[in-house]
Amino acid sequence: MAVKQGCVLSIEGPRCQVEVDGCFYRCSLRRKLFLQADGHASPVVVGDEVIFEETAPGEGVIEGILERRTKLSRVAPWAHEKEHIVAVNVDQLVIMVAIKDPPLKEGIIDRYIIVAEKGGLKPIICINKIDLAGPGKVSSLQETYGGLGYPILFTSAIQGTGIDQLKEVLVGLKTVFSGPSGVGKSSLINAIQPGLGLKIREVRQAARKGKHTTSSVTFLRLDMGGYVVDTPGVRELGLWNIKKQEVAGYFPDIWGVGKSCKYSGCTHSHEPFCAVKEAVQRGVFNERRYNSYLRILNSVEKN
Ligand SMILES: Nc1nc2c(ncn2[C@@H]2O[C@H](COP(=O)(O)OP(=O)(O)OP(=O)(O)O)[C@@H](O)[C@H]2O)c(=O)[nH]1
Ligand SMILES: [Mg+2]
Ligand SMILES: [Zn+2]
Fold first, then answer.
1. What residues contact 269, with CB distance under 8 A and at least 6 apart?
2. What is the CATH number of the domain that holds 18?
3. Predicted pLDDT at 208
4. I want to staple 197 with a disulfide (CB 3.0 to 4.6 A). Which of 3, 92, 190, 202 is the partner?
5. Mutate-to-test residue for ligand 1 from 128, 187, 216, 234, highest number of ligand atoms within 8 A of CB
């Protein structure tokens, strides 16, 4: 029968759902793909573009996986020497935090920016639950991250604030939502397109029956065009495959000042004649950002 190319929307145990122009196929995988996937739990990940053979109406067997354009990876929380690929071929990452409840830790935003840019995704910062805080906190975040050139949105899923602006950045693209538990990722996705709520609950129920947690990572189609991926809350975001010398490259403010350090390859931590440390000491560099940088640098060293 016909050979087709489609996108993996979800993984359900040994099978996955593949979409080709609005038509859906339940596909299994050729054994050779498992053999090639050295060490990875599953050779396919949501977002993969695959070649499959249609074996019956609505069914198929995946024969090959196309090269991945982008990759959202982190250290596997269940095995620190392993990579956990959350999704591939997505365009952007909405980094979701709440302004309050759970308390906002800016360091988590800085970590997520690294994860996004390393994987080739555009980072978009989304601060939710702005109904719970005053305007002071909002403008300080806008100043820090907006000033560094990152897109930053302020939303309230409950009051409907900022939903239109969020929709604008999602239309026609593939977007993963990630962030700590309880910040309102699912609530916000439901606010973008109310009909999606049901699908999210369906997936949760499936997960409760003892299926793999990765099965809860699913591409959801937006009526306006584009896809969103809701992900379960992240407790600890371990950076995968990041070297110490790389970290400053993901802090444009540190990178800029660090050009004047005496030693090339300065990590702005212990080296003498470090322009970044001097700027912090003179009070002309955002100390919070510098401390966040140091924390990330130290966590990378340990890996
Ligand atoms: N005040 C306020 N509460 C919100 C807002 N958005 C979500 N919540 C509440 O925050 C709680 C968590 O919301 P969820 O949408 O389940 O959060 P989540 O990020 O999907 O959480 P996980 O799935 O555990 O990662 C719920 O009680 C929501 O009603 C908001 O904009 N303002
Ligand atoms: Mg959720
Ligand atoms: Zn330096």
1. 294, 297
2. 2.40.50.140
3. 42
4. 190
5. 187
